Amino acid sequence: MQYLINVIDSRSNSGTAEEAVAIDAFNEKLRAGGHWVFAGGLADPTVSTVIDGRGEEPIFTDGPFVEAKEWAAGLWVIEAPDLDVALKLMAEGSKACNRRLEVRPLLPER
Amino acid sequence: MVATLAKRFGNLDIAEEGAAEAFAIAAEHWPADGVPPNPGAWITTTATRKAIDRIRRESTRDARHREAQLVYGTQPEPLGAIDDDRLRLIFTCCHPALAMDARVALTLRMVGGLNVAEIASAFLVQDTTMGARITRAKAKIAAAGIPYRLPAAEDLPRRVSGVLAVLFLIFNEGYLASSPDSAPVREELSAEAIRLARMLHQLLPDDGETTGMLGLMLLTDARRSARVSSDGELVPLAEQDRGQWDAVLIAEGHALVRERLASGVTPGRYQLLAAINAVHTDGDSPDWTQVVALYDQLVRLDGSPIVRLNRAIAVGERDGPEAALALTDALEPELRGYHAYHAARADLLRRVGRTAAARGAYDAAIILAGNSAEIAYLTRRRDEMRRD
Questions:
Q1: Residue B146 is nearest to which of A3, A83, A88, comparing CB atoms?
Q2: What CATH number does the domain located at B290-388 have?
Q3: Is position A36 within any domain?
Q4: Fold held by B79-150
Q5: DSSP A26-61
Q6: Cβ A105–B97 below 8 Å, yes or no?
Q7: Cα distances (Å, whole numbers) of residue B288 to B292, B305, B315
Q8: A97 touching B (Cβ < 8 Å)
Q9: Which comes out higher in pLDDT, residue A67 or A99?
């Protein structure tokens, strides 16, 4: 299965150099174990743009789709056989990036 | 059997429905046609066939092919594997990624075999609410990939403690129901919790905390019939008729506590609580020095305010109410919303003759208490003081 992991944050651009080092080491571990799919940091939600392309002309709106006290500051997509493996791995990931994480399964391909 | 099928098919719904269909067929045919030579095997085989039929009906062609391979590729399980399946099911139902109320409901449904209506009435919610809660939990297990697997050895103590928390919650709701609308003691819930704890103890005989939990439940349940008077009032431990206690359960509980003591392994939380209850049920009156010593150990493991309150009450029995009052003063900020804090204070204040303060504490306890027998007891105590 694949899981999306959202990195939960409430402050803008709050990552530190130590955290970056720990995250790199953790990502190496994901690669070595065959769990790596993708990871990346996200820009602040205030710079996002909402698109509605359902009508004749697409409509672009400044800002995130939902205003919240907390948001995703980064994400992983990992490969894991089940939730127990994902939770165990990402408990280490949470320590490495020094943030709470949300683990969410990707729907299986049909 | 649901456990065995669940493991084979990786799906609780299919397992449950297969088992239900098999039992329905047995109920219809066995009275007329006679019971087959090996009823257990007959039920399992029939349930498996019904589950496969269901998968065939509901699957797309590709998925059907995959499932069929899975089903026919599985060798018949040796007998001991049933125990493993049952454990797997317990760990799945009590998975930490599920909300506590979902764990409780799922455990009663899948492991305990209670139906949705029974569980709903036990927790005073609508059938549809409870049904939805169970359906949601099962959907999460399937969609989030919660595995039917025994936890790795290094995770086992933590996962077992998660299971024990579920069993303890079920037991406590039976032992001291939290709603004024329900009967004060819900025998069916505490009995079910004991049955599940016995099962877990049988499956994990060397797990000290599981042994402790079973001992704790037995020593508590042994006093059940003495705990509520004929007028529906809670009877405190010191005033209970010890002749009404269940001697068989007490003997069994004491044996479990002794077994843990003999192991020489440092006891965990439930083992200490069991040991405290063993002291309470030993001889004609408890040895409070020993009770305080056990609470001292417990506070080191679990310094929560409720544990410190219980320790203070034990200190009050050993050293007198003034000593206990001094200890409870410090707990006020954390426990002012907890009825047992005010009930304990009320009793201590009454004993030192601070009548007005005691009355106030009884009032606070009565407002916060949920259990009808407890409210009846506290009210009588308060009103007796008014007459003084």
A1: A83
A2: 1.25.40.10
A3: yes
A4: Arc Repressor Mutant, subunit A (1.10.10)
A5: HHHHHHHTT-EEEEEE---GGG-EEEE-SSSS-EEE
A6: no
A7: 6, 20, 8
A8: no
A9: A99
Q: Predicted ipTM?
A: 0.85
**Predicted confidence (pLDDT) per residue in B182-240, tens digit:** 676 678 888 989 999 999 999 899 999 999 999 999 999 999 889 888 888 889 888 89
Chain B partners of A88 at a C-beta cutoff of 8 Å? Answer: 155
Q: Which residue of A has its CA nearest to B140?
A: A105
Inform me whether the pLDDT recorded for B130 exceeds 50: yes
Cβ of A83 within 8 Å of Cβ of B143? The answer is no
> If you average pLDDT over residues A22-51, what whole number do you get?
96
Q: How far is residue B40 from each of residues A69, B6, B43, B185, measured CA to CA in Å? A: 56, 17, 5, 35
Percent of chain B with pLDDT over 70: 81
Is residue A110 one of the residues assigned to a domain?
Answer: no
- Nearest to A8, CA basis, from A104, A100, A103, A108: A100
pLDDT recorded at residue B62: 52
Q: Does A20 reach chain B within 8 Å, measured CB to CB?
A: no
Which residues does chain B have within 8 Å of residue A80's beta carbon, measured at their own beta carbons? 145
pLDDT at B265 > cutoff 90 = yes
Res. A8: pLDDT tops 50: yes
Give chain A's domain count: 1
CA distance B146 to chain A (A): 5
Residue boundaries of the structural domains of chain B: 1-77, 79-150, 154-286, 290-388
